[in-house]
Specification:
- The chain is α/β, with parallel strands linked by helices.
- The chain has ten helices and 13 strands.
- A hairpin with a 2-residue loop joins strand 8 and strand 9.
- The two termini are 34 Å apart.
- The protein binds adenosine-5'-diphosphate and magnesium ion.
- Adenosine-5'-diphosphate binds next to strand 2 and helix 1.
- Keywords: ATP-binding, Nucleotide-binding, Transport.
- Belongs to the ABC transporter superfamily.
Length: 302
């Protein structure tokens, strides 16, 4: 079941289209990564979903809100560059945020303690935020976003600015929070997405290029290729190769024959037998795999 449905969502800044017609749903209880290079439109999308930015066009529908209800009651948001009052302690900050979210002083205090515990900074509750490490600040930021028990937690590049230890801590925390809320987080690093997300939205130039369960996308983009180099007239072998039923496609790229294969064992045997019998001037015969990583690199490098 979807927590939120996005239809034809667009945002332009002074005529520049940052987000160009997005359609997607977020499934309840999942961790969803919004993956894309810098400038893809991730922050703009998250800010529209969180109600901070008005879409130019399109609709965002939360399943459990009424017509006139403020969607901010149901979502928590950690911006890409959060700012904290560094003179406050972590606990003071959470109580302050809790009261802003209309909790009573007692409720806010109770919720603050609970969250400090949950995000693993209870021992620094009474320390000034100015003294927190990057990872601790991100964890406090996540606690802040969880103060009113939102159905959807949105985190904009929550681990991008962290060192490897901080990164690990925050990813682990997100994994734990998954039990309580749906999480949508943005990142420009495929590895972060692969590590914890269930579903992936791949964004580039304001559009979603791919979406779905990450496991399925990994399989979809894992195709097997053979790279073959033939000394003379490689183009004359294309039709010969395509005739094998184990071969899906074949094309010539920079003098190399790239062969997409549906049954690697069979293709290998068939090609090598033909090469032997027909005395092909074979120079190279190599197995290559393409992965989600290669697809992403292609997107990133344009
Ligand atoms: N307030 C703004 N005014 C003008 N252009 C903006 C504004 N915010 C974002 N953009 C532009 O929109 C595009 C997408 O930006 P952004 O959503 O921040 O991407 P990402 O978070 O994926 O790096 C970029 O080209 C950016 O320069
Ligand atoms: Mg951004």
């Amino acid at each position: 079941m979807a927590v939120v449905e996005v239809r034809q969502l667009e945002k332009s800044f002074k005529g520049k289209e940052a987000v160009k017609g997005l359609d997607f749903e977020l499934q309840r209880g999942k961790v969803i990564a919004l993956l894309g290079p810098n400038g893809a439109g991730k922050t703009t999308t998250l800010r529209m979903l969180s109600g901070l930015l008005k879409p130019t066009k399109g609709t965002i529908r939360f399943s459990e809100t009424n017509e006139n209800e403020d969607i901010r009651n149901h979502i928590g948001f950690l911006p890409q560059y959060p700012s904290f009052h560094s003179w406050m302690t972590g606990k003071e900050f959470l109580i302050y945020v809790g009261q802003l979210a209309h909790l009573s002083k007692d409720e806010a205090q109770e919720r603050a303690n609970e969250l400090l515990e949950k995000v693993g900074i209870a021992n620094a509750a009474n320390q000034r935020i100015g003294k927190y490490s990057g990872g601790m600040k991100q964890r406090l930021g996540i606690a802040q976003a969880m103060i009113h028990q939102p159905q959807l937690l949105m985190l904009d590049e929550p681990v991008s600015s962290l060192d490897p230890i901080g990164r690990r801590e925050v990813l682990q925390l997100m994994e734990e929070l998954k039990e309580q809320t749906t999480i949508l987080f943005s990142t420009h690093i495929l590895g972060d997405a692969e590590e914890i997300c269930d579903d992936l939205l791949l964004m580039h130039n304001g559009k979603i290029l791919e979406s779905g369960p990450i496991k399925e996308l990994q399989i979809k983009h894992q195709t097997s290729l053979l790279e073959i180099i033939i000394e003379e007239n490689p183009e004359t072998y294309i039709d010969r190769l395509k005739a094998f039923e184990s071969i899906e496609d074949c094309k010539l790229e920079k003098g190399k024959l790239l062969v997409a294969v549906n049954d690697m064992d069979k293709a290998r045997t068939q090609i090598l037998q033909a090469a032997l019998q027909e005395k092909w001037p074979l120079i190279k015969f190599e197995l290559r795999r393409t992965t989600l990583e290669e697809m992403f690199m292609k997107v990133v490098s344009g």
